[in-house]
Specification:
The protein is an alpha+beta fold. The chain contains four helices and six strands; from the N terminus they run ααβββαβββα. Bound molecules: methionine sulfoxide (SME).
Length: about 160
């Protein structure tokens, strides 16, 4: 499924009354199914104490349910306010290993300008798994979720 179709399904769920958590869970499921090389797919949410906490995810359980800003690929994406596409995690000095099977990792921030709400984190068992198409797919869904965060604050619908 491409990014636009995923967003359309999320729109439909939202129109049918799904709550914010259900939308996050479904976004993770749809992304995880969208690409063969996505072996672990999850959302980390940023809390006011400058810590990321693990939300919905699919894949092997991880010890990293709590990551402080600046730590690992996930925490450094927040500290530097930019997405991270790591083609070979064995060469990344600031990397927190979830599984020895992981070879590459993508982090896409869920943000409104400088304001960061959360991030989508994806691990792959293949090196260099995240080509431009895969990144665009994840960015599209991150954009949808960013609008959901903004609207949930205002108690409005996304669409
Ligand atoms: N590898 C991440 C930690 C999260 S796990 O991949 C699920 C990092 O370096 O921050």
């Amino acid at each position: 499924m491409d990014g636009m179709k995923i967003c359309q399904e999320l729109d439909r769920m939202e129109e049918n009354g799904a709550d914010f958590r259900q939308l996050q869970i479904r976004a993770v499921e749809l992304l995880h199914e969208a690409h063969q090389q996505f072996d672990w797919t999850g959302i980390y949410e940023l809390f006011p104490d400058n810590a990321l906490r693990l939300g919905p995810f699919l894949g092997a359980p991880t010890d990293h349910v709590f990551i402080t800003v600046g730590n690992g690929v996930c925490g450094s994406a927040v500290a530097e306010k930019r997405n991270k596409n790591i083609p070979d995690v064995t060469k990344e000095p600031n990397y927190l290993a979830c599984s020895s099977a992981t070879k590459s990792e993508l982090v896409v921030l869920i943000r409104d300008g400088d304001r960061i709400f959360a991030q989508i984190d994806i691990d792959s068992h293949q090196f260099d798994a995240f080509d431009a198409e895969a990144v665009a797919l994840v960015e599209t869904v991150a954009g949808w979720l960013a609008r959901a965060y903004i609207h949930s604050e205002r108690g409005q619908k996304v669409g």
